[in-house]
Amino acid sequence: MQEQEADIAALELKRASKRERLLKLARGSQIYLVLQGGGLAFAFGMAAYARVASPVLLCLGILAAVTASEIILVNRRIDALLDLYDTDTHKG
């Protein structure tokens, strides 16, 4: 009887820790937005300071890279939310 209770407790602990990890992943982090904005401002400032022939192209290239990284982060958050939903609905 005690072994069964210990097994059930271990399963509940595993489920709770998985749920906590998925919730943390799904919430994401706002630090990326700050870093992206700072990176774009820095790139534009450096382009203006260095008098690059085409600062707009430099900024557009960095914006494309930032957008791609944001898409990857959003996909990870969606995957975590779907996994969390699956875990909650199937109890496992």
Overview of the structural elements:
The protein has one domain (2-90). The protein has 92 residues and is mainly α. The protein is rod-shaped, with a radius of gyration of 22 Å. 89% of the residues lie in helices and 0% in strands. It is built from 3 helices and no strands. α2 (31-50) packs antiparallel against α3.
Briefly, what is this?
This protein has 92 residues and is an all-alpha fold. The protein has 3 helices and no strands. The chain has one domain.
- Could you tell me the number of beta strands? 0
Order of helices and strands: HHH
- Major sheet description: none
Low-confidence stretches: none
Mean pLDDT, as a whole number?
Answer: 78
Number of domain modules: 1
The shape, in one word, is rod-shaped
Distance between the ends: 22 Å
Rg value: 22 Å
Structural class: mainly alpha
DSSP helix fraction: over 70%
Helical element count?
A: 3
Percent of residues in β-strands = under 5%
Structural features:
92 residues, mainly alpha, 3 helices, 89% helix, rod-shaped
List the helices and strands and how they pair.
Blueprint: H1 2-27, H2 31-50, H3 55-90
Helix pairs in contact: 1-3, 2-3
